[in-house]
Amino acid sequence: MKYFLILFLSLGSLAQTQAQKDAIYSTKNGAINGYDPVAYFTDAKPIKGLDSIAINWHGATWHFADTRHRELFAAEPEKYAPQFGGWCAYGWSKGYPAKIEPQAWSIVDGRLYLNYNQDVREDWEKKRAEYIQSAQINYQKAFVKSN
Predict the structure, then answer these.
(1) Distance CA 71, CA 25 (A)
(2) Which of 79, 95, 116 is the last residue of a domain?
C-alpha cells in the first residue's frame, strides 16, 4: 500500500508538472484534438479542422475547417480559444488539469468551455457559474506568475 501511494503521488506530481508546462491542452492532433475553435461559434457544433489550414498560437497548433475561420481566429484568438487553455473546465474548477472531448462543450457569455466528457459536462452545467469562478482562480494560480 505504501508503494502504491508513493507511485500515485509521483504520477500526480508528474501530471501537474506537464500541465504547468502546457497552458494549452494539445495532443498530437493539435489544440482541441484538431477541432476548429471558431466552428463552435459559427456552426454551433464541433468540426474537425484540416491539417492544411492551421496556425500556431501560444505554443499549440490550431486547425480550422476553412480559411475564413483561420482568419477570424488570427484576428481575435482570445475570442475563439477555449477557456482554461482548452483543458476541462470542471477539472480546473477542482484544481487540476484534465483532458477533454471536443463534443463536450458549452458557450457561456460568449466564451467556449470544454469538458472531459458529456457526463462531466452535465454535472458542470448544474453549478456552471460556481465552477467557472473556481476554475478561473485555479488556472490563474497555475499559469500566471505574480511579480
Answers:
(1) 21
(2) 79
Report pLDDT for 145.
58
pTM confidence score: 0.84
Q: Is the domain of 95 the same as that of 117?
A: yes
Q: First vs last Cα of the chain: how many Å apart? A: 41
The residue among 52, 79, 106 that closes a domain is 79
Give how many domains the chain has, as a whole number. 2
Where does 48-127 have alpha helices with state H?
67-75, 77-80, 89-93, 118-126
> What torsion do the CA atoms of 145, 34, 69, 44 make, to the nearest 10 degrees?
-100
Q: Over the chain, what is the mean pLDDT?
A: 87
The answer to the question of residue 3 being in a domain is no
Per-residue pLDDT for 2 more than 50? no
118 and 73 both lie in a single domain: no
pLDDT tens profile 34-60 = 999 999 999 999 999 999 999 999 999
- For residues 37 and 31, the answer to whether their CB atoms sit within 8 Å is yes
Range of the domain at 124: 82-147
Is the pLDDT higher at 77 or at 146? Answer: 77
> Which three three-digit cell numbers place residue 32?
482541441
Q: What is the DSSP letter of 33?
A: G
